[in-house]
């Protein structure tokens, strides 16, 4: 207890040291706790699946979706397959008869779903719960939302006006699964609500994910080459060379190996992103530890007399070390609890940034509490052992001579401070480049208009309702134009791939009306012919150059057969979906009167309240479709959503860089104060010998400038390498401009000077007589 009282007195006398140590460490640990739990959650994705080592996702050319009948074909030709489950996810409107519909996330799956995946059922037999064509299993939360305290089993739900029967209740799906978190699971055959029955009998509509459960002890991935050979004989897509790859990804790997644009209806992450977050968490912890160690070592000289007396009175080295480690444990425990409190307060912010659900309260299971205590002890030991060894190894006579503090300073402080400067500079460089790339992607000229355009997914409007609904929308103040199309630049068109004269083509096709061209500002350059048939095409410049065009008749073969179709015009290239993949071949034709549009596009008058107008459009749509889900987004917001992972990384990097700089500034400020205190007598002697205040300030700032310069030289190549590797994932990217390195270096230099200049100025103006009293 006497030692504890002595330490608490020391903390109260050294308020700056106490403040910087506790605040800096607490903020750092908050960051470490949040990122650590997020990384743990992501790395444990689908660990709860009992069959996780036997489940494989079939992919081709870094894409997952296949045509429906291919799953059965694989099972028939690969005895390693025990069963399979096809998966399709989408948002839709659902409700009880006569009641308002609510938005829900649906998952359509084969009847084998609950036998393959380990999602616990509260009610229902996993072998039979999805057997019936119109059976539905709803989650516990969704059941309470729709039915309250009633038992919903046996009751009806209407999906797109078709009645389905609830056959079971399941626990809510966890967020750390490759499958999108759904409100209900419906029998797979119910997808005919959205397509005709033919969709279940064709291998050609590549839009469905396929998971295979293998027999124990078998090796399905090794059969991929054999199956690919069969695919090339059986399915035109592989036979004609559009895909030359087949892979069975283990469930765990699929979550991290999936490409950004090739995997639909799945919850995915990037292993490189998780690795970066892990590195950030470790780096934050290291910086916090080094900052604490540096400050504690700097204070060692001022605690020397206390320790010297103890040593002269017979205290052993082990006693001194144990005392200092106990002090470290006290500080670390306080900062850990403060960091935990900050983590709870910051949880909503990080959930929003990371687009996840981190429920910290439920994360602290007995095993996690044990792990936290172990983490606390390790951090405490690492934070305390170096200062303890330094202080316990000193010679008491050095304290009397006043040389101990100078030895401590010269031996340990410089390297630690340079490390902090290096990390801060490198992080600032990376943060600026990532922010620039985010802005570049979001503001890239996609080649079409994007302001004030609302795109609505049409799920409830038939062809006979189009004219009436269009009139309704055009009557809303602020609505300028309305278009009905299949395909938009933001969502892409329908893919048409074919072979013509041994050349492969892959066109994105848009079926439009006249308002579409006006809304997106697409200008058609006529080819000089007057179309003689109802169906003709406009091609983008790249597509026109790629295909074989009859220069006289301006015709080409759009499906790879002998049917010739006229090209009435050419339009400039524009980007579709996002910049991760380049779709160079585009074609547009009029939407025929009997073709149901997939999208409704509303162009709003500039200067009006877009969101208020969108609300009125939503109201009209829901009334006109009798409660169908209104699934819409503005084009400019949709473009931002396409780069969610980059924006997330930018936010995390910015927050981490700010945290590092705050810790660095606090540490540099405190360290400078202690180092200046050690130089008080030297400064006094120089002033007595004629040194000016400017010369003294230059002397005191010179060491800081040297450290910043050394850190800059180290940080630049490190940041350049990291950014070069990160930019490899982007086809469209910014240049690594030299001025960013300079700006980051100057920023760290300026922050350093601001941190130390007041104290150096104060030291330079001090009365030398006061500093030399007692000498």
Automatic annotation (TrEMBL):
<dbReference type="Pfam" id="PF02687">
    <property type="entry name" value="FtsX"/>
</dbReference>
<dbReference type="InterPro" id="IPR050250">
    <property type="entry name" value="Macrolide_Exporter_MacB"/>
</dbReference>
<feature type="domain" description="ABC3 transporter permease C-terminal">
    <location>
        <begin position="655"/>
        <end position="768"/>
    </location>
</feature>
<feature type="domain" description="MacB-like periplasmic core">
    <location>
        <begin position="18"/>
        <end position="219"/>
    </location>
</feature>
<keyword id="KW-1133">Transmembrane helix</keyword>
<feature type="transmembrane region" description="Helical">
    <location>
        <begin position="707"/>
        <end position="724"/>
    </location>
</feature>
<feature type="transmembrane region" description="Helical">
    <location>
        <begin position="16"/>
        <end position="39"/>
    </location>
</feature>
<dbReference type="GO" id="GO:0005886">
    <property type="term" value="C:plasma membrane"/>
</dbReference>
<dbReference type="InterPro" id="IPR025857">
    <property type="entry name" value="MacB_PCD"/>
</dbReference>
<protein>
    <submittedName>
        <fullName>Acidobacterial duplicated orphan permease</fullName>
    </submittedName>
</protein>
<keyword id="KW-1003">Cell membrane</keyword>
<feature type="transmembrane region" description="Helical">
    <location>
        <begin position="274"/>
        <end position="297"/>
    </location>
</feature>
<feature type="transmembrane region" description="Helical">
    <location>
        <begin position="366"/>
        <end position="394"/>
    </location>
</feature>
<feature type="domain" description="ABC3 transporter permease C-terminal">
    <location>
        <begin position="279"/>
        <end position="396"/>
    </location>
</feature>
<feature type="transmembrane region" description="Helical">
    <location>
        <begin position="736"/>
        <end position="758"/>
    </location>
</feature>
<dbReference type="Pfam" id="PF12704">
    <property type="entry name" value="MacB_PCD"/>
</dbReference>
<keyword id="KW-0812">Transmembrane</keyword>
<dbReference type="InterPro" id="IPR003838">
    <property type="entry name" value="ABC3_permease_C"/>
</dbReference>
<feature type="transmembrane region" description="Helical">
    <location>
        <begin position="318"/>
        <end position="346"/>
    </location>
</feature>
<feature type="transmembrane region" description="Helical">
    <location>
        <begin position="415"/>
        <end position="434"/>
    </location>
</feature>
<feature type="transmembrane region" description="Helical">
    <location>
        <begin position="652"/>
        <end position="676"/>
    </location>
</feature>
<keyword id="KW-0472">Membrane</keyword>
<dbReference type="GO" id="GO:0022857">
    <property type="term" value="F:transmembrane transporter activity"/>
</dbReference>
